[in-house]
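Thread title: Can someone regenerate the structure for this chain?

I was given the following input by a collaborator and told the matching structure tokens would be attached. They weren't. Posting the sequence so someone can regenerate them.
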Amino acid sequence: MKTIIQHPEIGNIEVCTRRGTRGVSFRVTADKVRITVNPLLSKSIFPLSAERIEWILKAQEKLKTRTNKLIFTPDTVLKTYKFTVYFVANDTIKTTFAAQRKNDTLTIYFKPNTDFTTAQSQLVITRILTHFLHIEATAFLPNRLKLLADIHGFTYSGVKINSARRRWGSCSAKKQINLSLYLMLLTEELIDFVIVHELCHTREMNHGERFKKLMRNIFPNYDELNKSLKKQAIL
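Best answer:
Regenerated them for you:
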């Protein structure tokens, strides 16, 4: 059962009561709050505590800021490492957005008159794009890592592909390398630069002079590429 509650600070809150649900769970998006609760506990939700209200508002503000970093419009053409994204109006799709990948093209269909400026639209588009980036990253990055490690004489214990937004990659003390799927938004040179960066951390865990020497032996234009990478934005 769903009920809409109007909250003076948060706005509309969707309350869903479900048998079998344990306790209370909150799902917060940029413009929506959903509370799922066992019917026996539904009367205990409100009033929300000041701490809970503050947490929800901060989470929404953070999501809005993140979502609005990259604004997709019907005219957006986005080139990733493996495919190019186009937006096409289509009045036959059943949902607001739908996607189709064919060869080196990803077409995101949208219903005519869709409002691209809402946080929800931007979030849905980002999720669609992330889905296809993950497929490409999983197929490409581990093989690329192995190739570069073999060429330059590095060893590592394993690799994981994640959806990190704050960093392109990382390397643990056990030589486990983590690579963000969003690397697929970069050029081949910058992808290799990040991968080699993490491989160098298998020998030097800091960014001191010995680390930079390793990097410059492979990328003489290290400083230039490092500046270029810092200008790139993750979705």
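The mean pLDDT is 92.
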